[in-house]
Amino acid sequence: MRRLLLSFLLVLVSLVAPQAAGATTTTCDLPTFRATTTDARLSALFTDQGNDNSRTDDWTGADGTYSVRLPGGKELWIFSDTFLGHVNPDGSRPPVREEGGTTVFLNNTFAVEKDGRLSTIYGGTSENPKAVMPPRDKDHWYWAGDATVAGGIVEVTYQEYERYGTGAWDWRWHRNVVARFAPGRLDRPISVHDLPSGHKVAWASGIHRDGRHTYVYGVEDLGGTKYMHLARVRGASLLGRWEYLKADGTWSADQADSARLMDGVANEYSVSRVKGGYVLITHDTTEILSSKIVAYTSCTPYGPFSNKTTVYTTPETGGNIFTYNAHAHPEIAGPGLVVSYNVNSFVNTDHYRDVTIYRPRFLDLAFE
Fold first, then answer.
1. How far apart are the C-alpha atoms of 67 and 111, rounded to whole Å?
2. Label partner for 93 (CA 20 to 30 A): which of 20, 190, 283, 303?
3. Nearest to 339 by CA among 316, 366, 319
4. pTM attached to this predicted model
5. How many domains are there within the chain?
6. pLDDT tens figures, 124-151
7. 100: domain CATH number?
8. Residue 29 burial (CB < 10 Å; 0-12/13-18/19+)?
9. What is the DSSP string of 79-146?
């Protein structure tokens, strides 16, 4: 929750999506947005999971909400800040343990979906749960990014944050890493590897496999402005040799050459193959505390992205409540492109009063 409050308080500027100088123009049959509906199956899945008190160490709410298909067909859901515990009959939850209650609060967790049920995964024990990606000490923690599967191993990107003072906002992004998990043992990583972390680009916003390459989308978060960056690696694993998209449309092995491709994206966004082109889904950060989820289209996974279209206006936004970080789940079958977004409050006690606030929402976007 903490990582989102500060960035949304700042005034955000207008979107620019220029054609990269020297890039080859590509033509295609661009997808056209038609309609958005609520994804009833996923909405019910997470409502039922959150309200089920058959386990008292189970998921009751989280943000982040990335997903990847595991070998064998199960769906892995990847979360950042997560509440574990039980839900009271009136739809509230107890305060977190640090405030004298019984609810556990972790900075990252997983859930595996099988046969219409979710199973929460965390590290540690049921009496003392820990994050699946444990911090190195009390002054550091990890928030999750997008993930991929390479050679049967799950690779999840994480951003490490660090505390540098005693003030409420005395924390900052530190570096990017990728943690590798065995699908049959997801409660702790088998290895953790550094990812490129120069020039303050968080390489965790989105991942898209296309042809011979895996594209990794990043964000350079300057508070009032957030810039898209793009890298790629040959093959499926993120441990390969990275290249970065330059302003002239070519690729460079030097991360210092990574170009600001456009602004207006959120910290989490996605690029997916849809029909004959590609669709970028993001919350619109050109407006402060925007309720708008927007789509852009392109003929390539590296842009340029244009045709900005508002595809949904989140009804929860207003008062203390804000919405953020919409992105797609293209591996999930549905009547359209499945998209999730997060809901949060600036008032911490709201999360205790109403468990529905801090849960993802799911949509189906129809294109033709």
1. 9
2. 283
3. 366
4. 0.92
5. 1
6. 999 999 999 999 999 999 999 999 999 9
7. 2.115.10.20
8. exposed
9. ESSEEEE---TTS--PPBGGGTSSBEEES-EEEEEETTEEEEE-EE-SSSEE-SS--SSTTEEEEEEE
